[in-house]
Specification:
By secondary structure, the protein is α+β, with helices and mostly antiparallel strands. It has 4 domains: 248 residues, Collagenase (Catalytic Domain), CATH 3.40.390; 74 residues, Immunoglobulins (Immunoglobulin-like); 190 residues, Jelly Rolls, CATH 2.60.120; 94 residues, Immunoglobulin-like, CATH 2.60.40. The chain contains 10 helices and 35 strands. The two termini are 43 Å apart.
């Protein structure tokens, strides 16, 4: 099972994220099934045969069952809106509009059937398939069939963005996202392609602006979901599964859909490209023409046969028992609203207003009731109130939402971080995380996606000591049902760590540095392209963070594959990040943020030795020690290092070199023979290893520190 799963991940990542496969100018609708299938079938030859057999059986299906069609196949549906509180977090009204469009299309009640070409009017079918939003979730709770999930996965839009899949034998899962790579607008797999270990990929994932005709949607793109549900019910593109539109003539193995080359524009004249005097079904929902109007009777037979076969559990969806358990046998019900809320700022200073935004799901809300202990005002009935706090601290917030069905309350403890306009450290500071209470020492941890993993103190993986901070993604106790014989995959999470405040007003040449290390659990292809490590700073209660560095996947160095819980064993394996702080950070209240976005199959990720180094200078230093330089800098460990300075005294110079933890690595006393002139001496490499060091010059009470970087 493990090898099969990894193989699927390998070819899926290669296919889905190859730009040449899904160019938007080539395929306007952006459906990628016909590109993915060849690789799936190569890996699992039996799946292609399953699909071929189903299509062949459909040719005799109407005759076998005597021409009778069930009055209606009702399919329970759930929409998972994956969002980051942007326009991709579409309204329930937009989804209801899409549901109306689906049911018109599948029942041949769409008004534009009058525009169907004469050759195909008699073939346009009412499929007898109806879609209803679920009223009961998998746990027996009331639902409106729509859930909103906060996650950066909305920016990725692949199989691993299909969060919180509801059982596919009971619901059609639809995931709505903000973006997908290389112009893909959405995709779904045949039920035969996601049987067995590939079950987690079953369902439809689609861009928010291809849902409905209102909100972010449009009438032009509102039939895309109809197209994808066709795939979900085993329908190929009309030009076949292993072809591209407009490339070559192809056949979908359905008798009443003519062989076609496929169309990416709505050209209704001279459509006999493949067979003279035989028109092609340009207006079919399984085309790319954007003038879709119909399914044929043959396509209907394929879909209804799919719903009556056990493959991927499609035959259970429309049973009376399932319709009862999902609440879809009757009409919609009114649930109590389910409250959540968020902020647009992770930290704020006293006296600065911060706005709270509700994120309510499951039902409409008639009344909002907020409570803000320690805030002004302490209570509010506004939808999105602005609150101020006079005193630094970490505060709770509460929201109660009410409609005719009742009320629900959610409380978030230690939610609002109000930080004082003062510093924890003045000048350079080296943090090795050996403190047992790093959060109470001024560090702030944020888990915006509220998942299982967040920054925490780790007592077994330090680089310079026994402790560090880490994101422990590895799970030794995987869910035996979801991940048989495989490590539990936490997924791509986003986590934030904010440092204590630094007073750098008297610090020059400041450098922020830290070390990191991580491994992967995947022994096959590890595709880290979604990983990134963003480092930012915030100063003097400004509203926004300023980006210092965005270390993307190509620059993040992995130590390799580890089957078990990854623990670093060698200090040399850690990677160092050093960032010269820009002008503007020489102020009295500077904080730093590390924001890490994980990739799939990541083992643990650790950070240690978080340091701010630089020159803490005084006026006396400037009078005695002038024009100090170290070169080359940065340097490699095998180069000689030269120290040059001008001193207004001829007294001996004490020269000490310290690592970022304050350990003295090198010490010497230099007795000048040049008097009060420019001094230049070679330190050699001083036996130093890779890292960042402070070189301290001391004479006659004057002390000056310079930074040295060895790579």
């Amino acid at each position: 099972m493990k090898n099969i799963y990894q193989l699927f991940v390998t070819f899926f990542l290669v296919l889905l994220f190859s730009p040449q496969l899904f160019a938007q100018d080539e395929v306007p609708i952006g459906c990628g099934l016909h590109k993915v299938l060849p690789a799936i079938y190569e890996a699992y030859p039996g799946l292609e045969q399953d699909q071929k057999e189903l299509l062949e059986r459909s040719k005799n299906y109407t005759k076998t069952r005597g021409g009778d069609r069930a009055e209606s196949y009702i399919i329970p549906v759930v929409f998972h809106v994956i969002h980051e509180n942007g326009s991709e977090n579409i309204s329930d009204a937009q989804i209801l509009d899409q549901m109306a469009i689906l049911n018109r299309d599948f029942s041949k009640l769409n008004a534009d059937t009058t525009e169907i070409m004469e050759e195909f009017k008699d073939l346009a079918a009412d499929t007898g398939i109806e879609f209803r939003l679920a009223n009961i979730d998998p746990y027996g709770n009331c639902t409106n069939g729509i859930e909103h999930i906060y996650s950066h996965e909305t920016n990725i839009g692949d199989d691993f963005s299909k969060l919180n899949q509801w059982p596919r034998t009971r619901y059609l899962n639809v995931w709505i996202v903000k973006s997908m790579r290389a112009g893909v607008a959405g995709y779904a797999y045949y039920p035969s392609s996601v049987s067995g270990s590939l079950f987690f990929a079953d369902g439809i994932i689609i861009l928010n602006n291809y849902i409905g005709s209102t909100g972010t949607g449009s009438a032009y793109s509102s039939r895309a979901l109809t197209h994808e549900i066709g795939h979900w019910l085993s329908l190929p593109h009309v030009w076949g599964s292993n072809n591209s539109p407009g490339v070559a003539c192809g056949d979908d193995s359905i008798e009443d859909t003519p062989v076609t080359a496929g169309h990416t524009t709505c050209a209704l004249v001279e459509t006999d490209d493949c067979n003279t005097d035989i028109a092609e079904n340009v207006q079919n929902y399984m085309e790319y023409s954007y003038c879709s109007r119909m399914f044929t009777y043959g396509q209907t037979d394929v879909m209804t046969l799919t719903l009556e076969t056990p493959i991927s559990g499609r035959n259970n969806l429309h049973t009376d028992a399932n319709l009862t358990s999902t609440g879809t046998i009757d009409g919609p019900v009114l649930c109590t609203p389910l409250p959540d809320f968020y902020l647009t700022s992770d930290i704020v200073c006293p006296g600065v207003g911060i706005q709270y935004f509700p994120a309510v799901t499951r039902a409409v809300t008639d009344e909002y009731s907020w409570a803000f202990p320690g805030g002004t005002p302490a209570y509010s009935n506004e939808v999105s109130p602005i609150i101020t706090y006079a005193t630094p601290g970490i505060y709770d917030a509460q929201l109660t939402v009410t409609n005719a069905a009742g009320s629900e309350t959610t409380t978030k403890t230690r939610f609002t971080h109000v930080l004082g306009d003062y510093w924890k450290y003045e000048g350079p500071h080296a943090e090795d995380f050996e403190n047992e209470n790093f959060e109470t020492d001024g560090w702030h941890v944020f888990n915006p996606e509220n998942n299982e993993v967040e920054w925490s103190l780790v007592d077994y993986a330090g680089r310079s000591g026994t402790q560090c901070i880490g994101l422990e993604y590895f799970r030794a106790d995987p869910d035996p049902i979801l991940y048989p014989n495989y490590y539990q995959r936490i997924g791509r999470t986003k986590d934030i760590l904010i440092s204590p405040s630094f007073n750098l007003s008297n610090t020059s040449d400041a450098v922020l540095s830290f070390n990191y290390i991580f491994a992967t659990t995947n022994g096959g292809v590890f595709d880290p392209q979604d990983m990134e490590l963003r480092v930012s700073y915030w100063k003097d209660c400004e509203a926004e963070w300023t980006l210092l560095d965005n270390i993307n996947a190509n620059d993040l160095i992995c130590v390799g594959h580890h089957e078990g819980n990854f623990t670093p064993t060698a200090a040399d394996n850690w990677q160092n990040v050093a960032i010269n702080l820009p002008s503007g950070t020489e102020t009295s209240n500077v904080r730093f943020k590390i924001e890490f976005t994980a990739a799939d199959f990541l083992n643990n990720f650790f950070i240690d030795d978080f340091n701010v180094s630089g020159l803490l200078s005084t006026q006396d230093n400037d009078l005695i020690l002038q024009d100090v330089s170290i070169f080359p800098n940065p340097s490699s460990i095998d180069q000689n290092i030269t120290l040059a300075y001008y001193s207004t005294t001829s007294n001996p110079m004490q020269i000490d070199i310290y690592d970022m933890l304050g350990n003295q690595i090198y010490s010497t006393v230099y007795n000048s023979t040049l008097g009060m002139n420019k001094q230049s001496l070679t330190l050699g490499n001083a036996g130093l290893s890779k890292g960042i060091y402070n070189v301290v010059l001391s004479t006659e009470g004057a002390v000056l520190t310079k930074r040295l970087i060895l790579k």
